Amino acid sequence: MTTYTAPLRDMRFVLHDVFNAPALWARLPALAERIDAETADAILEEAAKVTSQLIAPLSRNGDEQGVHFEAGTVTTPYGFREAWHIYREGGWVGLGGNPEHGGMGMPKMLGVLFEEMLYAADCSFSLYSALSAGSCLAIDAHASEALKATYLPPLYEGRWAGTMCLTEPHAGTDLGLIRSRAEPQADGSYRISGSKIFITGGEQDLTENIIHLVLAKLPDAPAGAKGISLFLVPKYLVEADGSLGRRNPAHCGSIEHKMGIKASATCVMNFDGAVGYLVGEPNKGLAAMFTMMNYERLSIGIQGIGCAEASYQSAARYANERLQSRAASGPQAKDKAADPIIHHGDVRRMLLTMRTLTEGGRAFAAYVGQQLDLARYAEDAGEREHAQRLVALLTPVAKAFFTDNGLESCVLGQQVYGGHGYIREWGQEQRVRDVRIAQIYEGTNGIQALDLLGRKVLADGGQALASFAAEVRAFSLDAPLHREALQASLARLEATSAWLRSRAGQEPNLVSAVAVEYLQLFGLTAYAYMWARMAATALAKRDEDGAFHEAKLACAEFYFQRVLPRGLGLEASIRAGSGSLYGMSAEQF
Amino acid sequence: MTTYTAPLRDMRFVLHDVFNAPALWARLPALAERIDAETADAILEEAAKVTSQLIAPLSRNGDEQGVHFEAGTVTTPYGFREAWHIYREGGWVGLGGNPEHGGMGMPKMLGVLFEEMLYAADCSFSLYSALSAGSCLAIDAHASEALKATYLPPLYEGRWAGTMCLTEPHAGTDLGLIRSRAEPQADGSYRISGSKIFITGGEQDLTENIIHLVLAKLPDAPAGAKGISLFLVPKYLVEADGSLGRRNPAHCGSIEHKMGIKASATCVMNFDGAVGYLVGEPNKGLAAMFTMMNYERLSIGIQGIGCAEASYQSAARYANERLQSRAASGPQAKDKAADPIIHHGDVRRMLLTMRTLTEGGRAFAAYVGQQLDLARYAEDAGEREHAQRLVALLTPVAKAFFTDNGLESCVLGQQVYGGHGYIREWGQEQRVRDVRIAQIYEGTNGIQALDLLGRKVLADGGQALASFAAEVRAFSLDAPLHREALQASLARLEATSAWLRSRAGQEPNLVSAVAVEYLQLFGLTAYAYMWARMAATALAKRDEDGAFHEAKLACAEFYFQRVLPRGLGLEASIRAGSGSLYGMSAEQF
Lengths: 589, 589
Prior knowledge:
The structure is a homodimer.
Chain A: H1 8-18, H2 21-27, H3 29-32, H4 37-55, H5 59-65, E1 68-70, E2 73-75, H6 80-89, H7 108-121, H8 123-142, H9 145-157, E3 160-165, E4 181-184, E5 190-200, E6 209-216, E7 229-234, E8 236-238, E9 244-247, E10 250-255, E11 266-279, H10 285-321, H11 345-377, H12 381-416, H13 428-436, H14 445-458, H15 463-478, H16 483-504, H17 510-541, H18 546-563, H19 566-575
Parallel strand pairs in A: 3-6
Antiparallel strand pairs in A: 1-2, 4-5, 5-11, 6-7, 7-11, 8-9, 10-11
Helix pairs in contact in A: 1-11, 4-7, 7-8, 7-10, 7-11, 8-9, 8-10, 10-11, 10-12, 10-13, 11-12, 11-17, 11-18, 12-13, 12-14, 12-15, 12-17, 14-17, 15-16, 16-17, 16-19, 17-18, 17-19
Protein name (chains A, B): Acyl-CoA dehydrogenase C-terminal domain-containing protein
Pfam family, one (chains A, B): Acyl-CoA_dh_N
Keywords (chains A, B): FAD, Flavoprotein, Oxidoreductase
């Protein structure tokens, strides 16, 4: 009952028509030799097959069967091993990886679309791949040449998989509190000891080896977050010839029983003097890990988009089939006992809310991907820096806003089904359970909001925001549609930001009291920019494929009329400040 | 790990201090003889024991074990039978029942507080009782004296339980489409045939008999909703002496596998010429069923409040214990490695949002309960009619707004826990799954919104709304706190209503396009009225119990500053109308 079709037409619209990615690739030498429009389309079509035909059919059973843990080993659900084999043979783990070590070096703009398909097909399966790809990024950016040469090729190949081991029972958001220890050895390696929790793919039966990236403290390290180092700890030690040696004492102690993503093994990992290798500088582990975390944050954000797209497809299909009551404007299917519910205003409201949030998110993910590509591949240092500043600013927005919208959309997609959405049969309830984790892991959405407002907007004196705002304003001046609404939304975001800047100094709790609403206001404005761009493109292309582009124009209209006004309430709530949050003592809660 | 403490102090605040229920009871003769302040408190204390000590401890296992179906019989989870026995011996099923037939005749104002405790303890267990109490209401209001005398006493006793059988696979919201048939028999009874789905407690092992209230069509009944009759169909036929006779062919064919409320049996019921008895007039079954449904709608709304309260208690406790990072205003627990997260602004924002929505809902439930009591027991016909008009207006608001806020609150309560909220251990994820159904069943929240705006606000020319608005305005004139904000919110609701009234005639899709946002705007205003009343009471009583009443004042402040502004965005979205929903054909979705 749960089918998923990759929205290739919509993806090409974003990639080719709205952002003209091939033109960008052509002017970036590193990418020009690897990809063009045809290659990109071929990759997307192959990705569509793998995700919709190979992975999506495993999702329902994966949820019901879950992962099984016994005597330290994890068994993934029926079909996962075979699917992983085909998936890794296709080279998908290394899609964005460094070609020097076996990666395909594909641009992130393409990567975000692939990731959306992957999460739409099945969140649990996706995570084994996403964590691995993220760990490769951290290794590639910070590890020694020797470590890179040994570990990256089999990781990109998917013969091995990577994990990120940060959280401990008493240290989640506040990693400064971790207790895991690393003892230096005479041979330059370390012995890692400690317990980590919530480790995705900490143990599994998909790959020959598992490469843990572990945060731990060196002896005499400074207290807190400044005393954290990053270590690479393989499940099996690797011999000089690349073959697997003895088992490292890095064992899975148990797995969690969760609300969703049940086919993803969430492990307690116990390191008992396991051999590890330092990645990057001593005591700079958090910064090195952030290379991976920023990548993961965008990826996890895309989990929200993928789930929402899958839920939308299912709900839209059901709304076209389910007959119930007559439309308010008169019978639409006179030969039937009732009209398809797609004709009821409230059903359309739900579907269009899902769709405009999902497509707005897809465009914004591609936009952030574009900035990531520019930050990495642009020849001009100024252009790279500008793009990097935008990436830093927009990553927390993407992670949190995509996933908040992901939950909202999946809940709406379940609601369209009425009682049938609450039972397992149609898959809509699984999507709600699966997408919910995305607001929590890789830094809760509250932490993303603090990062955005505190570090990215206020701490730099507003420079990054000003860059983004200048781009939006410049676009708006020539926007053929929705110009005033876009400018008003931008003005609201800027005025609210300025107000916060003027107040944050005197009101220490202000940032944390309003950050979440600020992030949502930011996200709404960013989507307004995306919808204005999509509308402009659709208007220009209307003659080519009328029905497709008319639908884009109609969606843009809905977004500006019915979704964007949420910003009014958010602004008012932000401007009310932190005072009303601190009228009670801790005990009065 | 999942503990629940009935918030007796807060409940007494609402019952005694805000609404002065004992004074109301004293002036209504039927109630004056049954209840006073002391009796009410004694009942609440007993209810607190039963729900928190007997039922709440069963919730986690109930979720994990679920109900078991085999060969037509349903087995409830471990402990449910024993708990039901104690529960029914306490007379709780008949708490609000008609004393002429063995009910306790307690006022609804008390009933809503009891129901909140029950849902907070465990939703699944609650449903067996709630459906039974609702079916008694329909029987009491519409059945013959003979049926009442036979069926009500054992139902109130909880020896038997009731169900409501409305939905068929092709007929949910649109009950006019049902196909179940009733054939008249020579003895005045009927033979009922047809299949019903989503029947809560359709089969179970808690009671000796199960009494189904079934919607079906008589031969030659008018088409659609005007041709529906209501029948009482017992699982076992009842002999003249009240003993159980032969098994009626009303069998459970299967049960659903659901997202939550897993200990509640959701049954497919097959009626194969089962003996049934007409309740009320032929072809007036839908009206008769609405007696039950309106009761259930308020009850299901209260499911949202109960779940939210339980989630809040758990989250507030965790936030006081969990140490993570330092407060923005400086260290709060200097002797510890980090501060309790209750000191972080975003955690307070989440907890206060939960709390103000939950306590606003509790007060509003008591307010609607008060109107129900007046509608039933007031001596003056005008007073009864006025109250009945308010009940009709406010019931859809209660059902939908309570449950929307219930999901929001349970999601926030899970978010406070971070990753620990996503795993089963702490119970927060179960509450999200359990509360989610409440937005769907007993008429989806979209249907509640249509009922509110279409039937209750626009169809009567705005009389009911004007009554409610007059009361709110009258209170606001003397409100010692939040006067302007309350008046502004009321003015926004009235202006939006007037605008809708002026437009609905020309724009047939308008009502269904904006009804959900209108209901939320209405709910926010209703809660503003509740919070202004609670603040006024707390201000007056501040000398008595400072900390308790200061907390109420602080919560009111938060509600007006940070929650109520949502109305701004809702109003703007409503005023954008239906146009942007109909720019696409059904196929373009």
